[in-house]
Amino acid sequence: MYPFANVNFLAKNPPLCIEGGDGVYVVDRQGKRYLDGQAGLWNVNVGHGRPEIKRAIVEQLDRLSFYSLFGNTTNSPSVALAAELCRLTEQEGMRRAFFSSGGSEAMEAAFKLAKQYWRLADEPARTKIISLRRAYHGVTLGALSAGGMTVYREQFEPLLPGFFQVESPHVYRNPFTSDPIELGRLCAELLEREILHQGAGSVAAFVAEPVQGAGGVVVPPSNFWPLVRQVCDRHNVLLISDEVVTGFGRIGNMFGCRAWGVKPDLMVFAKGINSGYVPLGATLINARVEKAFLSDDKAQFTARAFMHGNTYSGHPLACAAALANLRVVEEEDLPSNAAKVGQYFLDRLKDIQTRHRNIGDVRGKGLMLAVELVADRKTKKPFDLSEDFGARIWERCVEKGVLIRNLADTFIISPPLTFTKEHVDIVVDAFDEAIGEVE
């Protein structure tokens, strides 16, 4: 069984089997080469087969393959990585890192840290989490409860109580206005109204992706995140930045929240933390949250222990890979490359939009881009899913040696951050031809 896939469909349409990878290319079982326009799954930011990361894993494997962080033991790579993450996020004020095996687990840790923080701060009634519609925060039950996409939620309801969603600042699809600044203000106001409706004293945190990923690459208006920080401050609500996709350069800044100059209270990482070479997630907290867990009072020893953990928290191979990966990100200044090449990508996609009646919207930031296809551009009417419009375009892209991800009729483009303008031209030209053939 495969993630988010129909078993009967796969029986008739076997998945493409990827056998090898080098740089921005991957190779299938038959030896055919493809340009990887989705970086695996948003995450192979530095490219496939990097010798620096392979060497770091092998060297660590020769020393120690695994030891846990339970029972007052640790390992050197996890200690070094925690220090490195706090150095990189010094501008945001992060002080400690908790490790997990991926984004969903890291998000669960964030929710638990937020709830336990308020218990330790003598406000145990603050248990509710508010998020955005169209949000994707993972597949574990807590992360799914914070998610705002019906298609992922409906099979597993009822979900956890205490999770609430407010309108997403989606410029292309919202019921309010076509003015981005007005939309940013309205959506921040809706968040504040929800906090007041729930009772500010009952809300633990607001969580959001700086740019919504699986929800269709929704880039918020420039005023949204600063206004959200103000709303959270007014009502003493923690702000969690879900950086699983945006962290470490994807949108042209080292971190998503940094693009808008906002300092969250917690940050959640995975994917680009080590470019997927070994599964890893991390949850970071600032000094405010850290302070609640610091106490020498033996009577409070258990209460102030973070009663959460995963066997593979701080896995030494994953952390060694992350340390090598982050050196590449900094030394090659991949956030800057993502900004430069991403703008070229966006411009080229907007150019082909003028030639195709079924391209409704082109949007993105850095190397996090989306092309939304519609049946009618004027009314923004989507295709009936039974038409398989996007799926047929995807098939033609694969035939042309280009891999980009389609979620229904929205194509998400998120290549390695080492992409060049020449790679962009290959993707756009293939995509242009594929849309034309299907139209």
Task: Give a brief rundown of this model.
The chain is an alpha/beta fold.
Helix residue percentage: 25-40%
Instruction: Tell me the major beta sheet.
Output: 7 strands, mixed
Number of domains: 2
Q: Tell me the name of the CATH homologous superfamily of the largest domain.
A: Type I PLP-dependent aspartate aminotransferase-like (Major domain)
CATH first level of the largest domain: Alpha Beta
| Rg over alpha carbons | 22 Å
On the 0 to 100 scale, the average pLDDT is: 97
- The helix count comes to 14
Q: Total number of β-strand segments?
A: 15
Compressed to H and E, one letter per element, the order equals: HEEEHHHEHEHHEHEHEEEHHHEEHEEEH
For the termini, the CA-CA separation is: 33 Å
The assigned structural class equals alpha/beta
Give the percentage of residues in beta strands: 15-25%
Strand order of the largest sheet: 4-10-9-8-7-5-6
CATH architecture level-2 label of the largest domain = 3-Layer(aba) Sandwich
| Mass-distribution shape | globular
Index terms:
about 450 residues, alpha/beta, 7-stranded mixed β-sheet, 4-stranded mixed β-sheet
What does this structure look like?
By secondary structure, this protein is an alpha/beta fold. The protein folds into two domains: 7-49 and 333-438, Alpha-Beta Complex (Aspartate Aminotransferase, domain 1); 53-331, 3-Layer(aba) Sandwich (Aspartate Aminotransferase, domain 2), CATH 3.40.640. It contains 14 helices and 15 strands. It has helices spanning 7-12, 39-42, 51-63, 76-88, 103-120, 141-146, 150-153, 180-198, 224-234, 287-293, 316-331, 334-353, 389-399, 421-438; strands at 18-22, 25-28, 33-36, 94-100, 128-132, 163-166, 203-208, 238-242, 266-269, 281-286, 359-365, 368-373, 402-403, 405-407, 410-413. A seven-stranded mixed sheet has the order 4-10-9-8-7-5-6, with helices on both faces. A four-stranded mixed sheet has the order 1-2-3-13. Strand 2 and strand 3 (33-36) form a beta hairpin. It is globular, with a radius of gyration of 22 Å. The model has no long low-confidence stretch (mean pLDDT 97).
